[in-house]
Amino acid sequence: MGRGTASTLYGMAVLAALVTPGCTHTVDGVPAAAAGPPSATTRGVAPAGPRTGLDADVVSDECLLDATQFAALLGEPVLEPENLTVHRGDGSSGTSCWAHAAEGFPTPIGAINVYTVRTGTPADFVRAAPAGRRRDLPGAGEAAALVDTGSGPTLQLASPRYLVTIIVLRDRGPADEVWRAAARQALARLDR
To answer: Which secondary structure element, helix H or strand E, spans residue 137, and what is its range?
Structure first.
């Protein structure tokens, strides 16, 4: 299996552990514990301080970016993003908004999830990410940070009520200004 395929499958497995219900399609998932943020949502693992956990299933539509906006973030054309259900091996299921490559085989190349935090605020949660694994992204939401995860670069974005994660299933993410534009667009849609 090539690096791109393995990376995509790993990304799908990590996201499968983090997704919420209420979708339009069903896909089989690969159960796996997520490694690093945003995996603080993994039940039974409670990080110290305000990073005590997240609740998924908080909005019915997690597609906060449209195809044009996702394409600008990812640097390539994508099919219209859609909420997809993932059924995990433990019997649970959930959804994420997935963006698939428009050219060639429709491989997932980006995803969005929306959460509420159990304690503190979404901004507290973002700021409490381990410093060695995150880089703050000023000028986006209440707080924002880029976190290196096994799936790829992940934007953790805080609104007053929600934590949004935008994951680029690639080795590298876009420039900071591109991340900021995606953050503004996602928050604008979330506030509707």
So the answer is: none
- pLDDT over 70 (residue 30): no
User: Does the predicted model carry a pTM greater than 0.85?
Assistant: no
Round to whole Å and give the CA distance between 163 and 149. Answer: 17
Question: What pLDDT is stored for residue 192 in this prediction?
Answer: 65
Q: Any idea where the domains of the chain sit in the sequence?
A: 3-190
DSSP-assigned letters across all residues of the chain: --HHHHHHHHHHHHHHTT-BS--SEEEE-------STTGGGSTT---STT-S-EE----S----S-HHHHHHHHTS-BPPPEEEEEE-TTS-EEEEEEEEBSSSS--EEEEEEEEEESSS-HHHHHHTS-GGGEEE-TTSSSEEEEEE-SSSEEEEEE-SS-EEEEEE-SSS---HHHHHHHHHHHHHHHT-
* Gyration radius of the chain over CA positions: 15
